[in-house]
Specification:
single chain; 201 residues; alpha+beta; D-amino Acid Aminotransferase, Chain A, domain 2; nine-stranded mixed beta sheet; two-stranded antiparallel ribbon
Length: 201
């Protein structure tokens, strides 16, 4: 755990029927520790959306949700935060709720879209920020053992934003602390979110 300035995000929500209503509040400049994520490897395969795994987009989505829930259950059983998912080729895809990025030197790596990443604008945003920070970024085939060879790693989704990855299966990833590239991207993404919120007001 690393101390530093960060942000506390509080979401208060309640459900009415099938809808979820909430108040999203951001409290800046609260001196809290940067949290780290611990993962377990999941033997539940992932698959890319629209890959033909199911015969319709609806069944495809249902299959993806089921896989994510099963992977999350494995993480809870192991008493860790997340579960890494491999696709049917044994390549790294994602976690149950986020995409994964690795750092080697000044190069940012992430699984290819066709390998089963979670679709959306969030991974694209990270790659755009990396380009703005002159960080070389590539999508490529990544095997599980490459996670342990990485100098840094982090998970990313729109809710938790960028979260450093500390260990997988009790094995450290890098130094088990947020590295310089991860911290630069965390700062840049947080600035982007704050700017977007200000423009919406």
């Amino acid at each position: 755990m690393v101390s530093g300035n960060s942000f506390c995000k509080l979401i208060i929500a309640h459900s009415i029927g099938n809808r979820l209503h909430g108040i999203d509040m951001l409290c800046p400049f609260m001196p809290i520790k940067v949290p780290l994520m611990n993962c377990v490897y999941s033997n539940i395969p992932s698959f890319p959306c629209g890959s033909g795994f199911a015969r319709s987009p609806i069944l495809d989505t249902i299959g993806l949700v089921l896989i994510n829930r099963l992977a999350k259950q494995e993480a809870r059983k192991a008493r860790v935060d997340e579960a890494l998912c491999l696709n049917e080729k044994g390549l790294l895809a994602k976690t149950s709720m986020s995409n994964i990025f690795l750092v080697n030197g000044s190069i940012l790596l992430t699984p290819k879209e066709e390998n089963g990443i979670l679709p959306g604008i969030t991974p694209e945003t990270v790659l755009e920020l990396a380009s703005q920070l002159n960080i070389s970024a590539f999508g490529q085939d990544i095997r599980l053992e490459e996670v342990f060879q990485a100098q840094e790693a982090f998970l990313m989704n729109s809710l938790m934003e960028i979260m450093p990855l500390a260990e997988v299966n009790d094995k450290p990833v890098g130094s088990s602390r947020p590295g310089p590239v991860t911290l630069r991207l965390m700062k840049a993404y947080r600035k982007l979110v704050l700017t977007s919120r200000t423009n919406e007001q």
